[in-house]
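thought: user wants a sequence for this fold. calling inverse folding tool.
action: design(structure=
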């Protein structure tokens, strides 16, 4: 697999803004917010500033080595571009959260409770657009016993999954306009039912494929 230059550039930028922000951050910074968007978790400024870039670095390294350990490693060459875009999209998501967190701790008015569902929703929409292009593998995509058993089932499930993820993303973005426990419940309902629907459909596709063969 070719290295993902965009993800690497975004990660380097995350380190740069962390270094730039360190002198101005308070000794204790917020790193977690509750369902109401109120800060309820704190750490020292060094951990708060550099944990996100470190996580981005780990993500790049992880996605770089996963294909080497996948029994279906030959499949990655068939969706290499999409794989890199997914990696870059994840890096972009974490970078935006990192910027928002630093801004919040520097005294900028940032509504984290609204930003997170908007960001997750946008990420799902991006993933949904590229999901149909992902080929069978053991690490990325909708991995059920039935999609891993049949490439036909895999392709059908991921074509459907692309549409479902886009819808899930739009619904999650709408939850940004709710608050507190209601927002959390709506967010969880969208994620759970969306994924459950895809699992059931992958099973139904498999059953249909089995009937065709018998």
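)
observation: tool returned 214 residues.
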């Amino acid at each position: 697999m070719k290295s993902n230059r965009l993800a690497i550039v975004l990660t380097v930028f995350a380190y740069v803004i962390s270094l730039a922000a360190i002198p101005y951050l308070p000794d204790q910074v917020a790193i977690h917010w509750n369902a109401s968007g109120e800060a309820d978790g704190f750490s020292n400024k060094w951990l708060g500033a550099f944990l996100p870039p470190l996580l981005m670095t780990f993500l790049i390294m992880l996605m770089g080595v996963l294909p080497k350990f996948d029994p279906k490693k030959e499949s990655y060459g068939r969706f290499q571009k999409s794989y890199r875009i997914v990696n870059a999209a994840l890096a972009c998501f974490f970078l935006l959260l990192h910027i928002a967190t630093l801004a919040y701790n520097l005294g900028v008015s940032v509504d984290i409770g609204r930003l997170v569902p908007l960001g997750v929703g946008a990420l799902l929409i991006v993933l949904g657009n590229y999901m149909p292009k992902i080929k069978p593998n053991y690490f990325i995509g909708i991995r059920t016993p039935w999609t891993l058993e049949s490439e036909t089932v895999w392709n059908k499930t991921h074509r459907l999954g692309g549409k479902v993820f886009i819808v899930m993303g739009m619904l999650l973005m709408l939850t940004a306009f709710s608050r507190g426990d209601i927002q959390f419940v709506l967010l969880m309902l969208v994620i759970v039912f969306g994924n459950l629907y895809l699992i059931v459909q992958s099973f139904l596709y498999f059953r249909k494929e089995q009937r065709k063969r018998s």
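thought: summarizing for user.
answer: Here is the designed sequence. Residues 1-100 form one domain.
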